[in-house]
Write a structure and sequence with these properties.
The complex is a heterodimer of chains A (about 190) and B (about 400). By secondary structure, chain A is an alpha/beta fold. In chain A, strand 3 and strand 4 form a beta hairpin. Chain A starts with a helix and ends in an 8-residue tail after the last helix. In chain B, the strands form three sheets. Chain B has a three-stranded antiparallel beta sheet with strand order 1-2-3. Chain B has a three-stranded antiparallel beta sheet with strand order 6-7-8. In chain B, helix 5 packs antiparallel against helix 6 and helix 5 packs antiparallel against helix 17. Chain B starts with a helix and ends with a helix. The mean pLDDT of chain B is about 90. The chains are: A alpha/beta (about 190), B alpha+beta (about 400). At the A-B interface, strand 3 and helix 3 of A face helix 2, strand 6, strand 7, strand 8 and helix 15 of B.
Chain lengths: ~190, ~400
């Protein structure tokens, strides 16, 4: 079974909520337009089509585009050795995806990291709490509106958490700037 | 007697804190113990979180390369190779890599694999009590570090690969040194083997400890030797070959039971297979260029930059703006010593990625601890942690 055939099977089973299959660099991506059904799509992929391995669960902050959050599921099957990518989006007002921990238990930590970094909740997750940052950290660091140098925050038992000293400029390269001044600003403020 | 009745069944909370000699880095385990038996184990990670993914959104692809050294800092060359391959896949030039570059990258990956397994096994043996093995394996690692230093200039933070090729070619006499090392490492592996494999104490500590069933291994997303220990014959180098692995002849060891002893044996055998791959690479190493000949991807020759206009422009564009990636997204997973290191790069065009997710094998491998540890005794924790062979730098990014 090729990846194309498997993707077509998903498309036929979930008519209406799956967009066209997009191919880039030999990889197939399926867009699921209804994020509340992503758990059913994943269950079908695992149980009927043999995608038993969730390689990665990633979330993207689309900044000013709506819907704001996109979840990307990379799935793979040890039987047929095919990769597939499922993408689904949700708006900022909702900020909730159904969990897929009931389908693949490895999603547990991936979803916790998505919650920690982006602030997206996963309904039905057995233990949704922060994983990389400490409990009680008030911000969601990987969002586009969170500055690179960090924000000061209170940490009860530790001396201080200040933004990192950037010594006059972030010395970063920003995407998309047309001229060098926009691309590598001397001092970059996010808001 | 009544006091004894009260105490029995009472759980003790023990913190195996982030700073512990046997936790292989900064891992915190909150344990609930009933006497010696673990009832609940909650791993806490994130003590080494440095925000690599946030940083990647602010760097060009070439500027991010040194951060990949620091992911799995025991095998930095393999992280460099995996990252370079991921970006080259995004740019669509992975099929244009010269043969010599591919062979040298395979040599780097396999050297990194031997180095990482030597450390993993040495530290594991030391944790369960066999202190001598640690010294033997670290002696061999010194030889690897000498080789890597001659090749890249640094022992640990190599940053050797570049997008589209390598930073420099092999130095004079390096292949002879590597051939000499190949002979010596087999002897060292067999020494460690003689000390551990049929050692009664080691067997008692690792046999039937930390059993991961086949279904659990797949469901929890394990990869690398941890997956292969549970009777799954799967290796990315064979299933989805990259570089020149499809032209090389090597075997994949896989276990039957899925206990710590199986994972130990797999790592030992993987080292021998890596030596086999290194021998084949040395025998077949072609001559030729080490980077793609495309001014839009690889920095041009410095002499030409100083004298010719086209090369000057290419140099300027690459340094200031980075390689112009197309709009799109890719995922590339490589067989790292710890498991499957994957890079998911979402690009909106230009030289800076919009989102980069690093799929760290150690992060996923650690998630099984909460499920696996309850029921074991406290001293088994050390054996299990060592057999999972994780690196916190990779786990936390």
């Amino acid at each position: 079974m090729t990846a194309k055939q498997l993707a077509n099977k998903i498309k036929r089973k979930f008519k209406g909520i799956i967009s066209d299959i997009h191919e880039f660099r030999g990889e197939l991506t399926l867009e699921v337009s209804d994020s509340s059904q992503i758990s059913e799509v994943c269950r079908y992929a695992k149980e009927e089509l043999g995608f038993d391995y969730l390689v990665d669960l990633c979330t993207i902050d689309n900044d000013d585009d709506t819907p704001r959050w996109t979840a990307v599921y990379h799935i793979y099957g040890y039987g047929h050795l095919q990769h597939l990518r499922l993408k689904t989006s949700v708006s900022e007002e909702d900020s909730e995806f159904p969990t897929v921990t009931t389908v693949w238990r490895t999603a547990n930590w991936h979803e916790r990291e998505a919650y920690d970094m982006m602030g997206i909740r996963f309904t039905g997750h057995p233990d949704l709490r922060r994983i990389l940052m400490w409990e009680g950290y008030p911000y969601y660091p990987l969002r586009k509106d969170f500055p690179l140098e960090g924000k000061p925050s209170e940490m009860p038992d530790v001396a201080f958490t200040d933004p990192i000293p950037l010594e006059g400029g972030p010395f970063v390269t920003l995407a998309g700037g047309e001229d060098a001044a926009a691309r590598e600003p001397r001092v970059r403020k996010t808001e | 007697m009544d006091e004894l009745q009260d105490v029995q069944g009472e759980k003790m909370t023990l913190n195996m804190g982030p700073s512990h000699p046997a936790t292989h880095g900064v891992l915190r385990l909150s344990l609930e113990l009933d006497g010696e038996i673990i009832v609940k184990a909650v791993p806490e990670v994130g003590y080494l979180h440095r925000g690599d993914e946030k940083i990647a959104e602010n760097m060009t692809y070439s500027q991010f390369l040194p951060y990949t050294d620091r992911l799995d800092y025991l095998a930095p060359l393999s992280n460099n190779v995996a990252y370079a391959l991921a970006v080259e896949k995004l740019l669509g030039v992975d099929s244009k890599l010269p043969e010599r570059c591919q062979y040298i990258r395979v040599i780097c990956c396999e050297l990194a694999r031997i180095s990482a397994h030597l450390l993993g096994l040495g530290a594991y043996a030391m944790d369960v009590g066999a202190l001598t093995v640690f010294l033997h394996t670290f002696n061999e690692r010194e030889k690897i570090y000498n080789l890597i230093e001659a090749l890249t200039g640094a022992r640990l933070t190599t940053s050797y690969t570049r997008i589209g090729g390598l930073s420099r070619d092999l130095p004079e006499g390096w292949t002879d040194e590597l051939a000499k090392f190949n002979k010596e490492i087999l002897h060292a592996i067999s020494e460690a083997d003689q000390l551990l494999t049929r050692n009664k104490i080691f067997l008692d500590r690792t046999k039937d400890v930390g059993i991961i069933s086949k279904e659990e291994a797949i469901d929890f997303g394990l990869s690398g030797p941890n997956l292969r220990g549970s009777n799954i014959e799967y290796d990315i180098r064979k299933a989805q070959p990259y570089l020149v692995y499809d032209q090389l002849d090597f075997d994949i060891p896989y276990g039957e039971v899925g206990d710590c002893y199986d994972r130990y044996l797999i790592r030992m055998e993987e080292m021998r297979q890596s030596v086999r791959i290194l021998d084949q690479c040395l025998a077949n190493l072609p001559t030729g260029p080490i980077s793609i000949d495309d001014g839009k991807i690889v920095l041009p020759n410095k002499q030409k930059v100083l004298s010719s206009m086209e090369e000057l422009i290419h140099q300027f564009m690459l340094v200031t703006q980075g390689q112009n990636a197309p709009v799109g997204e890719i995922y590339f997973g490589a067989e790292n010593p710890k498991g499957e290191l994957g890079f998911y790069i979402n690009s909106k065009g230009g030289g800076v990625p919009y989102r980069m997710k690093i799929r760290a094998p150690s992060f996923v491998n650690l998630s099984i601890l909460e499920h696996m540890l309850p029921g074991h005794m406290m001293s088994d924790i050390v054996a299990i942690l060592g057999s999972l062979d994780f690196v916190m730098g990779e786990c936390d990014r």
